[in-house]
Structures are given as C-alpha cells and as structure tokens.
Specification:
It is built from 15 helices and 19 strands. The chain has helices spanning 38-56, 60-76, 78-89, 98-113, 149-162, 177-186, 204-210, 223-234, 258-270, 290-301, 322-337, 368-371, 387-394, 410-417, 452-457; strands at residues 2-3, 18-22, 29-34, 120-125, 128-136, 139-143, 166-170, 195-197, 216-220, 239-243, 248-252, 280-286, 341-344, 358-361, 378-384, 402-406, 424-427, 446-447, 460-466. The protein has a seven-stranded mixed β-sheet, with helices on both faces. A six-stranded mixed β-sheet has the order 8-7-6-9-10-18, sandwiched between helices. Strands 1-3-2 form a three-stranded mixed β-sheet, with no helix packed on it. The termini are far apart. The chain binds nicotinamide-adenine-dinucleotide.
Length: 467
Amino acid sequence: MGDHRVTTDGGAAQGGRLISIRNPSTGEVVGVCPAATVADLEAAVAAAKAAFASWSATSPAERQAACVAIAETLERHAEELAQLLTREQGKPLNGLGSRFEVGGAAAWARYNASIDLPVKMVRDDAEGRIAIHRKPVGVVGSITPWNWPLMIAVWHVVPALRAGNTVVIKPSPLTPLSTLRLVELLNQVLPPGVLTCVVGGDEIGPLLVAHRDVAKLVFTGSTSTGRKVMAGAAEGLKRLTLELGGNDAAIVLPDVDPSAIAEGLFWGAFVNNGQTCAALKRLYVHDDIYEAVCAALVAYAATVKTGDGLSEDNVLGPVQNAMQFAKVRDMVDQARARGARILVGGTPQGEGLFFPVTLIADAAEGMDIVDLEQFGPALPILRYRDIEDAIARANGLDFGLGGSIWTADLALGRALAARLECGTAWINKHGALRPDTPFGGVKSSGIGVEFGPQGLEEYTTIQVVHE
Ligand code: NAD
C-alpha cells in the first residue's frame, strides 16, 4: 500500500481526511491520499496564479520542449504508471488497458509539441495591419473522471500548458493515485506552480469551479455534473470545455458480413468494460442479419478473458466501483424483466465487482439500458427494418458524442454518417480517437472540442492588434 501524500507544487500537501483507494479486482487498499482542504485549494490556485506570469511569457519553443519532456517522462515511467493505474482503476495491463492508456497519454503529449498557435494576419498593406493573436487564458481548472484517469489528465493538462496557461487538476476521488504520481513526475520537468493537484470529490470540485482566480474550466464527466460545473462557472463568466456523457448508436446495414465486423463491434462497445464516453452503447441491426450479428458477437465474446487486471492474460477487468456495478446490474435486470433476451452474461458470479460481458437481444427504447448511459459491460442490441427508422431512433436521445454506420457501401455510409447528430461519426469502426483530430459532443454530450489545433485554441483567448 502506498501513501500518496504528494502535491501540488512540489511542496508537501497538508490535506484533510485521508481517502483510501481500493483495487476493484480485490478490494484491497492500494493507497491513501489526503483530501484537499480549502487551504490546500487556495494554495494550489495561488501557486498557479503566481506561476502564470513567467510560464505564459515563455516562448512557444520552450513550451513545445516541455511537451516533449512530459512525453519522455511518461515513457520512462510507463510500466510504473500502468501498474498503479491497473491497481486503482481495475483495467487490465494488456489489451486496451493500462499500458495502452499510458502509451496514448505519451503520444498525445508529443503531438502537442508539434502544433503551433500562429499569428493570423487579416491585412498587412499600405492601409494598415490587423493581426489575430492567441493568448493563454490564465489558471485552468481541470476536473477528470475515473474511467481513463491518466489519459484524460494528459488530454487536459498538456494543451493547457502548451498554450501558456497554468493548471490545477482535480482527479476523481475514486482514481487519484495515477494523477498524483503524474503531477509529481511532471513537477520534475516543469517550473514550480505550473501544474498542481488537489484531490477531493463533491466538496472541493465546486470550490475549484467557482474560484475567482480560475479563468477556464475543462471538465470531463457525466452530463449531470457538467450542468453543475456550467452553473458554477456562470458567475465568473469562465471559459468552459465540457466533455460529457454519451449514448452512442451504431447502425449495421444488411450488406455486411457479420463475422467480419464482430470484433470491431465488440471492442467498440466493450473497450474499458464499456466505461468509455464514446463507447458503442446501442446497437441497431437490420432484421435480415439480426440473428447472424448476435451469433457472431456471442462467438467473439467467448474468446475474451476477464479477470484481475494485474494478470497478463486478461483483457477485461472489473467494473471500477460499486455504484457503477449496481447501476449496470439494475439496467440488465430491468431489460430482462421487460422481455429482452440475455444472450451471454447477465448475472454476476461470486463476490466483487466483476460483471460478465453481457449481450442483450430484443432490447428496445423505453428500457433504461437503451435510453440512459449504462457505462458498463452490457450492450443492448435493437432490431430495425427501415433505415429511416434506425436513423431517427439513433438521433432520438439528447446525447450526441459519437455514432457509427457499418456497411459495405462507403458512399451510402458517408451519406448516413452525415445524418447522425453527433460530434464524431465513424464508418465501419467505432471509438477511434487521434491527437490531431478534434473530438467533442453535441447536444447534451458537451461544449467545445479537445485535440488538434482546434482543441489547443480552446485554451486561448483571441486578441486583435489593429494598427
Ligand atoms: P462524474 O460527473 O461523477 O465526476 C467527474 C468529476 O467531477 C470527478 O472528478 C468528480 O469528483 C467531480 N465532481 C463531482 N461533483 C462535482 C461538482 N459539483 N462540481 C465539480 N466537480 C464535481 O463522472 P464520472 O462518473 O467520474 O465519469 C463518468 C462519466 O464521464 C460518464 O458519463 C462518461 O460518459 C463521462 N466521460 C465523458 C468523456 C468525454 O470525452 N465526453 C470522457 C470520459 C468520460
């Protein structure tokens, strides 16, 4: 068990009550860390505010070098961070698990070293000169969830720093250890105060949101908490990036080979045990191939090993926490009670937070597992006959993060993808993200984007110099 009494700005965190973090695979305590007090929060924001003057004055080249140093630090400590992540989050080391997450975080950091915020000229002639500059915002408050804690921390922190801001990050109290270690390591390559961390939950989050010296918030989490963040930020008119919940639909057309797409559909849905914002959460399959797609998914699911994340064999682990476990169990029970067919899984065996991979046929709108975000290893499979009906049902919810079309006809796939009401539409894949491509939600799935030059610009304000 580790004592993660680390900080903030390289100094010692005082902290309040100790939070114990448990391994979801075993229930064992894997570390303790102090919950931030109001005084800790004030110290962190003050450090970030003080550091802003000099950090924002560094050159783009210096900040690009810092992104490279961050990537190298992640790579040097990759195995240590992956082990810690598995122990606190539950995800396996292998598959799309902890090693993948740490590798992705390093790749995102390196990408941010490669992009620029160039001055754009509106005019520069005998009549005058008008230049558009991108300036850092100030202190950024980052609030992260428990599903991809290290990757999302890097998604927030690195572009914010690259643009010249300083950051106070608040990880989920369920998975703070990997972020605390990350911040500790990054403080070895960053000046003091540039990146600080406060741990806590419902009590400290709103204080960070409302803090007078925090100029922008980047929040990844549920839609309901996102609304509270937006309300809390209103008084200070703070800039916001909100990456919220999703309930992505995939539509499978009758022209596909079910066995050829089963693996892609499966991992689209079950990546990180379904605890992924842009996971496939509702699968609409044409009536003609409905049973064949169900059978191909069942066959693929039988090849997937679930168990303790620290075992090298497993590619899926437990659900991260008891609240989420109960939510998924209740949704599956309700679907079963309303006549859905459980093709595989459905009933947890034994103690602990292991919920089996669950495929639910004959699911329908009106069931919570279809209408709400399950965020766990259970996929409802719905039937359709008419593509217009499928598109209307896919767009029928207030979510709009991702969506996908599966077809052999790429022209038709593109036309249908354009009609999905979501920030990212995939064709014959689901959930692929890249550091150079903007990602964000529409409707209740978010405001703004991350990644790419567009994501970097969200950490800036525009200043026009007109002469
Ligand atoms: P959550 O909303 O419960 O918590 C997210 C963070 O907000 C945590 O750090 C939490 O402590 C903090 N928080 C709680 N109450 C707060 C308040 N009043 N003010 C400020 N902060 C507060 O979300 P979660 O359960 O940790 O994560 C799962 C959710 O995140 C899912 O809905 C998932 O879809 C979403 N998510 C979205 C994306 C995306 O990019 N769109 C990515 C990952 C996860």
